[in-house]
């Protein structure tokens, strides 16, 4: 047995299982990383594109989608520690577009049938996704508010809106909230608003802020909202499955990538690209309760607050498709609360990304797991390759 308490024989099982997904054509390639007690095990399997491309590499760059959320939440906590933001202060001064909100009487009602908001929106609401607006879990276009969000370019999805942050906020401010602030959990939009709030609070573009406070101190040299020209050869292709056949359809070609230039709207909810080793650095800091190397990035109390479930049982029950009866939401991260599956260790935290990524940190087992793939998810339920990765990571524990 190794110092890490991970079985090399059982880690080989992981490679075998995940190679099967590639060989069956589920996806062209993937990178996995499992770290425990200072030992790091990496697999780069398959190729960067279907039917060709180069071999997948440890330093291949992926669009990490909603894995972005935990990174930007950590940056927000840095600003809260500096008292530039306060968890329970109204955001109205920095985000006047969200002042004096109107709230729909019914989520499926007409946009002009509203009541005044009971209270202002706060940074806590943004971090816990209880600001009152976000992904509406109904059939596409079923509710007027869904159609309005789609028409305004505000609907959650894998592509960042091609509009500047100020215009994005203006469009959001033109819409009513779906629920009262603090009342319900609604996915995603809070993170994007949080990114605008952080930029305005510091007077800095969001990417500059993240680079200064997180990426440079952690050595995350390949993480950002776009891929510089000299690194585009490491950007993998991105695919979505055809709804009818399941065949992979090219969504973003690395040679003509949307990520080849800075976006109009840097999405704090899903816009970053990164690598396995950059994400390992971030997760190591979080596992070490805010410390990385000789530096303190966040305080221990901040990390503990972020990774503590903040939702009521009712809020989680209404979102069972996300929480499954065994987890909740902290400040920007999913938090496991109940032992009901092999990797479901209470206190484990992280999140999945809709482009086929999964990154979690487990303080109890001292384990970090990172899976980067190129196949978009089609529902909040993780696909087989993500479920198999986590099963294989935890069955490899040998102590």
TrEMBL record:
Beta-lactamase-related domain mapped to chain residues: 15-376
Name recorded for this polypeptide: CubicO group peptidase (Beta-lactamase class C family)
